[in-house]
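Encode chain A's predicted structure.
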Amino acid sequence: MSTVRAQSMGAEASPKLWNVSANLRGFYDDNYSVTPTQKGSFGVEFSPSVSANVAFGQTDVGIRYTFGMYYYLQRDQNGINPFDLTHTGDLWVDHAFNERWKLNLTDSAAIGQDPQLVQGGAVIRVNGNNLGNHFKAMLNTDWTRDFSTSLHYGNNIFVYSDNRVTNNPANPSEAALLNRIEQNAGLDLQWHFSQETIGFVGYNYSWVRYDGGGQIAAPFILINPPSPPRTIYYNSSARDFDAHYGYVGLTEQITPNLSCSLRGGASFVDSFNDPVAPSTSVSPYADVSVTYTYRPGSYLQGGYTQNINSTDVSTPNLATHKLTQYQESSTFYMDINHQFNTKLSGSLLGQYSYSSYKDGAYNGKGDNDLSATVSLNYQVNRHLSANAGYNFDDLLSTINNRGYTRNRVYLGLSANY
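Encoded structure for chain A:
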């Protein structure tokens, strides 16, 4: 779950005070362990969800909880625990102090094993109850008819329980590599040139602290005459960094059914805790999206993002002994939702990312990550629908035994009340 979709949480919420729904699906997953060595299994998914929405005058409050239970037949036949259990929760609060001051709070949490659920930097399935929590607060203020500000704060927490206990620093646990707290705070200055056009300039400060403890790479003895030899240890905190973002942007309602948002700038990253030599770097930053509604209930959205992100790769460079700090990722995405008729709808989602490693053994090299999803939904009646879908994931990596391919198909029923 990701906080960038926080606004859609409220938009998708039922106008009723409460809502109960459930999905029951049969599926086949040809790589449920999400590893280079594929293991496939048929299975059953059951995921009930309950949500509530309450309005108190100038305040709207919403909450949603979803439980996921996934049964894998092949794991059961091999005497392995056949169940994966997941928990996801969302909370959102909108409060209008008056016509000019508006506050939005969102929190989204996920607990599970699949890397696509937790979204913490791991690319393989990690046993245990791993947590990813995303909190965001935004205060929007209209100072005049033509000028407004947006003050924002974010807090992301990642905790891997990691059943793979190891004392070998050359083979660190996911907890040592990825447990961390990410915080950011910033301010956007916005000029309303017209009802359709808003320009802005902004700054964001981000600080990331890894708190998994333990070593994440094998130590080495640094010999640098005339200084005496010293042992270099790579602990989790060696990848702590601060980042400063500066950007300008524009949002434009081009026509009633076509809109775009452009944001571009740069980030200045200070990897101040590297045990060999602290370093700084400048990276491009961008977030571009276009949305086109071509008929009622049908739209196309595409975009591009450029940013830095955490990785579960930490291998130092044998020549410079610099640790792998993070990745720089370029991502293209597309989302098509089509309403064929009043009962049948479908969607097509695609995403491609190229992520290059900063410092370390694979400095400048990268991963190619491609994913695609096709789904169909048929509304039997107001409370019952049938659905089918196919998910494809392919990770091509310059690192041996890191890439994988995954295909999933499902067919099921959804009930809503």
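The first strand starts at residue 18 and ends at 29.
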